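Worked example (supplementary).
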Amino acid sequence: MLKFDDKIAVAVSGGKDSLSLLHILANLERKQPKSTVVAITVDEGIRGYRDEALRMAARTCRELEMKHYVFSFKELFGVTLDEIVKRQRQKASRHLTACAFCGVLRRKALNIAARNVGAYRLATAHTLDDEVQTIFLNMFHGDVWRLAKEKPVTDEVHPKLVQRIKPFCEIPERETALYAYTRRIGFQSRPCPYASEAFRTDVRVMLNRIEEKHPGTKFTIFNSMEKLRPAIEMLAEKEGLVECSKCGEPTTEKTCRTCQMLEQLR
Ligand SMILES: [Zn+2]
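After joint prediction of all chains, the assembly is encoded as:
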């Protein structure tokens, strides 16, 4: 995933996974003088939650003497997640969950952030647990295209898209937690206030129950997916990426999902 002269932006939320990843990559960076690691945090604008996480991320970066860049939804998209949720809840008609908005906007924000700091690669701290949950979520949503594309190292498909890597994809979440505890890394342990709305929570509970009864299941699912992926990729339509007519970011449609969502809010 990494090269000796890489410039890596680590997506840091302030939770145990991302701060552990930051520590490990900082250690590797010291051994590779030509490499650079910087931290980027996306501030979605979740009052009473993200501000605490931001402080923890900033503190770790100071300890590691690492550059830390913060990009907010407000600056990038003109609206905070709290404001989005408020507007959505006022609507009588069917509304999207906070996580549906946040997922799309955060993905875009991270790419813009990584590109702006000049990173060659964007490292995210998705663990084995996250990866397996995503496999199921994509299946439950019937999203075969995502199933094929959500892989540990993304393809380089567009000059404006920074390659994403997931160094923890085969590390169970329990082990990143253990690492953070043994290294005495201070992290935010409270879940996001909007997380209970997410389908992902149900999938997590289901998978943890199965894993408890049948240890090793998560690894098996992950490995099965790795073997299946080449076949699924052949089925999934080739993505023809164009630049969004509104914001200029790469998208498969005329207008990107972020711009569509922001338009819908107005
Ligand atoms: Zn757009």
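Two points are worth noting when inspecting this output. The mean pLDDT is 92. The chain is about 50% helix and 10% strand.
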